[in-house]
Amino acid sequence: MAGIWSNLCSVKSNSIADAVFFLMSEWIETKGGTRISRLAIIDGASSITISDACTVSAGCKLVGRESAARGTKPVIALGKYVFLAANCTLDPSKSSGAAGDLGECTIGNYTTIGENSVVKLSFIGNRVRVGSNCHLGELCVINDCCIIEDGAVVPKRSVIAPFSRVRGVPGQDYVVEELSAAYRRVLELNSHLCKNLE
Amino acid sequence: MYLYNSIYLCSCKNKTESSVAIPAALRGTKLTLPDLYFCSRCLVLRCNDCCIIETVAKYCVNCMTDYSDSPGTTRCIKNCFECVKCSSPLAITALDVGKGKQFTFNCGYCDYSYETEVITEPIPLLKHLRAKADPRFSRLCEKYSHRDSTTLTAQMEQKLQQMSLSANTENKKQFHLNRLGSNPQSLLPPLPTGKHLVAKRSYSCPGCNTKLLDPVADPRLMKYLTKELALDILPLLVAKVGPEELELEGDTQCYLSVINALPSNAKITISTVEKIPSTFNKTETELSVSLPVTSFAVSSRREKMGILESLPTQFLTDATAESRAEKLTRSVTKGGRYSANYEANGLEKGANWATVPFSYSATEDLDCDILPWLPFYVTIETRMPASMNRALTSSGNGLKLGFWALVPVEK
């Protein structure tokens, strides 16, 4: 009991809410193995679909606006084993389309998105690794088995072919390279390890 | 990325095949294990630089049009345009003006914009843009597009042949087409260009012409007919720095893990040079490495093995319940679920991996935040995998090969 009390005293804010939060686990876990941090911000939960074994880390922001026009179709859909690292943002609400015409942000299975990355209205395929501090513009399509290196910027409406590595910023050092077939397995393993170790 | 950070040296860059001296090429290479192929006939590693490359198909990734039957075409001829400044895709908008239409191209990333004249006839946009291009350049294109014409003199034919040969060599070096294109019409306002095509390529061994990677030609499919990957044969090497309390008299204690990818047990022998120069270890000082265990066996990889089961203990964390449980299971030396345990010499063996301790020390003061890269020469002795065509190989049922790897020490 003394240990818990000393831990409580170390909580920066003295509010009861903070103390209650401290006593709870950081993660909300589902039966399917999905973990969602209590510090993640999920806006419009009814328009977001999260599959089994996903991880949504602290500080992540999922902006899924609710719209009657869309019916049951989700604005954000995460496949299984998707790993969203701390402070990444999925924000499909900044659509350039007409008002009410909401786009989607679909992320395939075994995809990992790094810290502080921003994903706008996009389609990301299976087994994709998006590094940290990346920016994926609106209406981008990242096909299966791709690596977006740290700090890369994928411009609006880009279509990235399967088995590609993207790095750099357009107009400066933007390069799309071919990846070997071995990366299919490597990227899937990477997603599993992110889920099990982080 | 987890695990796959070590750099492996392809056989094309290690001509001397020396296991005593570090090959100079190890300094410049950046190839990790997934980037390499393994020729089961020559029993050597192959990389993109030394393979024979053939284009199986080329297509526009935007509209998925197949251009495989159009030799010489490198850009999409449909309405897929990219910015001449930053190679981002261009958005096209049409405006009705009188009886015609005016098209505007806008880049989604930079400030590039281009407006066409009012077009009154239904013609493809690319054709309209080509007509606007520098007529001298168009004439040149026209001239060289008829290279098979019988009007060419023998001297011109010879010159063209030379040009095409040099172009092919250049193409071999340039693996991807998605590079920023140059604009030949520097005096005219830059015109939008068609999107660069993407190629599907096959890779063959230069020694025996065996296909190492052969994709299906259909651009809509991601399947491969042949995959001879180094990842399936060579062991994975990972090094991790040990706990701080193990630091003794300037020596940094580390662990080197070897993960077996083969379905058969393997005998591993590891060695390194006595003094590792700063040019290889990526620090500013010379390092010496002490490797107490140099030869050991690693168990085979089983089918449907658990992810954490196949991971060395040093990589397990306390962040997730699964990882904590695995760590706890391994800490039980007797009656544990797995055979992972420590031997007297510090060797730890797991399901398909083994970890050996080693230490390094610097000749001068080294900042403890700077972690070095260490070169190791690894020899693997094992049974030939059933997947390999034994009839093609000359070494019977046994497989023995050595390779250099540059392993980063991770925290």
Automatic annotation (TrEMBL), chain A:
UniProt KW keywords: Cytoplasm, Cytoskeleton
Cellular-component GO terms for this entry: dynactin complex
Organism: Australozyma saopauloensis
Primary localisation category: cytoplasm
Protein name as catalogued: Dynactin subunit 5
Family the UniProt entry places it in: Belongs to the dynactin subunits 5/6 family. Dynactin subunit 5 subfamily.
Lineage: Eukaryota, Fungi, Dikarya, Ascomycota, Saccharomycotina
One Pfam entry name: DCTN5
InterPro entries (alphabetical): DCTN5, Trimer_LpxA-like_sf
Keyword Cytoplasm annotated: yes
UniProtKB/TrEMBL annotation, chain B:
Alphabetized Pfam families for the sequence: Dynactin_p62
Entry-linked InterPro entries: DCTN4 (IPR008603)
GO cellular component terms given for this protein: dynactin complex; stress fiber
Compartment(s) of residence: Cytoplasm, Cytoskeleton, Microtubule organizing center, Centrosome; Cytoplasm, Cytoskeleton, Stress fiber; Cytoplasm, Myofibril
Positions of transmembrane segments: none
The entry's keywords: Acetylation, Coiled coil, Cytoplasm, Cytoskeleton, Isopeptide bond, Phosphoprotein, Ubl conjugation
Family: Belongs to the dynactin subunit 4 family.
Subunit-structure text: Subunit of dynactin, a multiprotein complex part of a tripartite complex with dynein and a adapter, such as BICDL1, BICD2 or HOOK3. The dynactin complex is built around ACTR1A/ACTB filament and consists of an actin-related filament composed of a shoulder domain, a pointed end and a barbed end. Its length is defined by its flexible shoulder domain. The soulder is composed of 2 DCTN1 subunits, 4 DCTN2 and 2 DCTN3. The 4 DCNT2 (via N-terminus) bind the ACTR1A filament and act as molecular rulers to determine the length. The pointed end is important for binding dynein-dynactin cargo adapters.
Protein name from the UniProt record: Dynactin subunit 4
